[in-house]
Amino acid sequence: MKVRYHYVPKEDVKYCDEGFTVKQAYDYLKETGFRSIPVLSEGGKQFVGFIYKVHLLEYFVDEKGQDSDSIMPLIKNQDAYIFEEDSFFKTFLTIRRLPFLAVLNEEKEFSGIITHSNIMDVLEDSFGMKTGGYLLTVGTKEHKGAIKDLVTAVKDVNIEGLLTLDNGDQYIRRIILNISSEVSEDKLKKVIKKLEDKEFRVTSVDLIKKQS
């Protein structure tokens, strides 16, 4: 799964030019309502970094900055970017406490941003929030072939998604199994019994309604 499938395109992104003064940048942040936006150069082609509202305020108050001063010394996170062709999961390691990441194309030009909301969308999709269905939280003792055993036990129903938690734990792993909501309650009970017969423990069952 690539970043290029899950980011906010440039035409939908609010940004400021590196030539902005601190007043221009502050006014624009107030207007947009964001606490931080990208700073671009060369007519919006090159990513320069982030400008934060809090840093502009500190500059005005603590350093007695002037309205006409350049924003250049206040730009942060110049390396907060990722490429369109990078794996989407790389964002988990990169974004962390940042509000977003800039996305660059293969020519290293600014293409857009990836946000925490984009990440949540992917996670929601993994949990079946878009397609709906039954979410089974399954606990198992960690052992070789655990996933294979689980899939084999439910091979006669349609699996919409599978997500594993506690990876690396030496003892217990939780597996989130998304099964189509078209499965009858009777069939669902049989699936649960098959899992428990294989020494899996179904700790919870949630019915997720399909998003309209």
From TrEMBL:
Keywords attached to this entry: CBS domain
Residue ranges constituting the CBS domain according to the UniProt record: 7-68
InterPro entries: CBS_dom, CBS_dom_sf, Lmo0553-like
Pfam families in the cross-refs: CBS
Protein name: CBS domain-containing protein
